[in-house]
Write a structure and sequence with these properties.
Blueprint: E1 10-11, H1 16-26, H2 30-50, E2 58-66, E3 70-78, H3 85-91, H4 115-122, E4 123-131, E5 134-143, E6 147-152, H5 161-167, E7 174-181, H6 191-200, H7 205-209, E8 214-220, E9 228-233, E10 240-249, E11 256-264, E12 280-285, E13 288-293, E14 306-311, H8 313-320, H9 339-363, H10 373-393, E15 412-414, E16 417-420, E17 422-431, E18 443-449, E19 454-456, E20 460-465, E21 473-482, E22 488-495, E23 498-506, E24 527-531, E25 540-543, E26 548-552, H11 556-559, H12 571-596, H13 606-630
Parallel strand pairs: 2-8, 12-14, 16-23, 24-26
Antiparallel strand pairs: 1-6, 2-3, 3-7, 4-5, 4-7, 5-6, 8-9, 10-11, 11-14, 12-13, 15-17, 17-21, 18-20, 18-22, 19-21, 20-21, 22-23, 25-26
Helix pairs in contact: 1-4, 10-13, 12-13
């Protein structure tokens, strides 16, 4: 074999601290790394297919698992385009536009992530790429001080057959990425757990079910004496019935969304905090799956019978135009607080609603006997307690600063400098003497951030006459959000020829106290009722639309202590009721706190964040729920 000579190692241009934060936020599990590498290979095949080039579409994934649930080595091989030296260098440059997304190709490259983030998060890589019978080789690794480093083979050469066989690309073009995992935080489960994860992951769903792709897994683990096990990855749709296949107009926009919804013959897993769930609508744009959602129905049993997709090319078009606020700061999905995305969410919820309501009726048990008057009063008392507790836990728009005694002379954002903990409210003040005369009913101001990791949730702000200072100002408010600690941004507001700036920094999250009213008038919890359906799959649930806590009294352990009247006079029955109500309250409130950005935010493991939030809420509230039930005489 020819002796290889590499050039002097050099760093890949980047902001070291930002890249490390971004990479660890994006690549949290070994499956995340595989998603990025496999979709890179799929994008390469797509580019060839758009040129009418025949491809086999094969992608090989190799995992070497060692003791302690660790992954020692990960490799992904494709037989697509390959890269020459120039393309190799461009692929190793951060923010390099290599996917083809900018040229309106149907690829997942709009996320702007992949090989470099995987290497930064996992360890070090050896990359071989063969194109036009020339092999190019690079070693890439993360240096804590210098950032991502690489050394590139000085010159490409024609590999011999034996070397091609050793590389893994026996003929034609292809790319091999082999990563030695050095990060202690990256774990790898057994094949029994790993196989359904890589099969069902929502971002790989189209690839795993495509007729023109064949994904093959080679898994080596100590459980089998380091013998290799082989599997073909294929995702079959659950048995289903088609409910809708139609194109809808997005309200308030010219964009179309193509929606397909199916009803499963069996209940599926909810997509909430679960990237492997089979229930939910895949949100797609320009060849990419950005998210899997059931929105407000994801915690409801009826919602878990539905899956499908919503294709909205308007998402990709807005990203091409520079509106990166559509994607979450850690680039793991869609920012549903964005005005456009919120409109899309509401439209999809409206389309889902009749199917979910119909399914609810099918799942309903027989009518239950009404509880006694004393039991009804006790349940109402518990609901009042839950609403008071959730009011203390949740927050709405953060408090907005007000001007001092001296009148403002120019367009102003207050506060002018601020730390944000997940999100914060700001206020725009426009003195009357800078506005048109006579005054209009409202003025439209535009607000933007110069940092894609710090976003303005409502960039178009209406300014109206201030109620508190009607003779001085027109005012409006907006919210800024950010989750990557120490990121900074300048927020700019423009109103006609006038501009104003504010400087923000993302601070570490701190525990907060009472922050205002919940979003629902009358509280989140209206009733606690019994459900008598046979063979329920859970003990209790929350119906968010009707604000009802349902207790499934036919669940085996529940049926021993509670009947459909929920009026047990035994200590065991009261304890069971308190635990079930507390379980529903804590899970719902934990989800709300995380989604609102109040507490428990961690970029490394959102599932861990959820369960940590539940545990903390249990410590704070379960004894109060028990007390409310036990001190009421039935």
């Amino acid at each position: 074999m020819e002796k290889r000579k590499f050039e002097k190692a050099r760093p890949i241009p980047m902001d070291v601290s930002r890249v490390q934060k971004q990479s660890t936020a994006t690549i949290r599990h070994i499956v995340d790394a595989i998603v990025e590498l496999v979709t890179n290979s799929d994008d390469s095949y797509k580019r060839l297919e758009e040129q009418a080039t025949d491809t086999k579409g094969d992608i090989k994934v190799y995992i070497q698992r060692i003791k302690g649930n660790k992954c020692k080595k990960l490799a992904v091989i494709d037989f697509a385009e390959g890269m020459d030296r120039g393309e190799f260098e461009k692929a190793l440059t951060f923010a390099g536009a290599t996917s083809g997304f900018e040229e309106r190709r149907s690829v997942r490259g709009l996320f702007g992530r992949g090989l470099k983030e995987v290497i930064t998060a996992l360890g070090k890589a050896e990359v071989y790429s063969v194109k036009n019978d020339k092999v190019c080789i690079a070693h890439v690794w993360w240096d804590r001080k210098k950032g991502l480093m690489y050394e590139l083979l000085e010159r490409s050469y024609t590999p011999r057959k034996e070397e091609r066989k050793e590389i893994g690309v026996v003929e034609g073009n292809g790319t091999v990425v082999t990563i030695t995992v050095t990060s202690e935080r990256i774990t790898c489960p057994t094949l029994k757990t790993f196989l359904p994860q890589i099969t069902d992951h929502y971002a790989l769903r189209d690839i795993n079910s495509a007729n023109n792709r064949k994904i093959r897994l080679e898994f080596e683990s100590p459980e089998k004496g380091m013998l290799k096990e082989f599997r073909t990855i294929s995702y079959p749709k659950p048995p289903h019935r088609k409910k809708v296949a139609q194109t809808f107009k997005l309200t308030g926009y010219t964009d179309n969304i193509e929606v397909k919804i199916y009803e499963s013959d069996q209940e599926l897993e909810s997509p909430y905090n679960n990237p492997f769930a089979r229930a939910g609508l895949l949100i797609k744009t320009s060849g990419a799956i950005l998210d899997n959602q059931l929105f407000k129905y994801q915690s409801e049993e009826a919602g878990r019978f539905f899956f499908g997709e919503a294709v909205c090319d308007g998402l990709a078009e807005r990203i091409r135009e520079g509106d990166w606020g559509i994607i979450t700061p850690d680039r793991t999905g869609i920012n549903w607080h964005h005005q456009y995305c919120e409109t899309l969410r509401k439209k999809l919820e409206d389309i889902l609603e009749p199917f979910i309501e119909e399914k609810k009726k099918q799942l309903e048990g027989k009518p239950t006997a009404p509880p006694s008057e004393k039991t009804r009063k006790m349940l109402n008392k518990v609901c009042s307690l839950l609403n008071r507790l959730v009011k203390e836990e949740l927050s709405e728009v953060p408090t907005i600063d007000r001007p001092g005694k001296e009148p403002l002379k120019k367009l102003t954002i207050l506060p002018e400098r601020a730390n944000i903990e997940r999100k914060r409210g700001f206020c725009i003040y426009a003195p009357l003497d800078i506005l048109d005369s006579p005054l209009l009913e409202y003025y439209q101001a535009e607000v933007k951030s110069d940092n894609p990791y710090i976003q303005v949730l409502n960039p178009s702000v209406r300014l109206k006459a201030s109620r508190k200072y009607p003779d001085l100002y027109y005012i409006g408010s907006f919210i800024v959000t950010g989750i990557i600690k120490d990121e900074k941004a300048t927020i700019t507001c423009k109103l006609g020829e006038h501009t104003a700036n504010a400087v923000v920094r993302v601070a570490e999250l701190k525990r907060r106290g009472k922050r205002g009213e919940p979003r629902r008038k009358g509280g989140f919890f209206r009733e606690i009722k019994a459900d008598t359906r046979e063979n329920p799959d859970q003990r209790a649930s929350y119906d968010e639309n009707n604000r009802i806590i349902w207790i499934y009294v036919r669940f085996p352990v529940v049926s021993r202590y509670l009947d459909e009247s929920l009026s047990s006079k035994t200590v065991e029955g009261k304890t069971m009721l308190a635990e079930l109500v507390g379980e529903v309250y804590c899970r719902f409130t934990a989800r709300e706190k995380i989604e609102r950005g109040i507490e428990y935010i961690t970029l490394t493991d959102p599932i861990d964040s959820f369960y940590r939030a539940v545990t903390d809420l249990q410590k704070k509230s379960l004894h109060l729920i028990h007390e409310a039930i036990f001190t009421h005489k039935l």
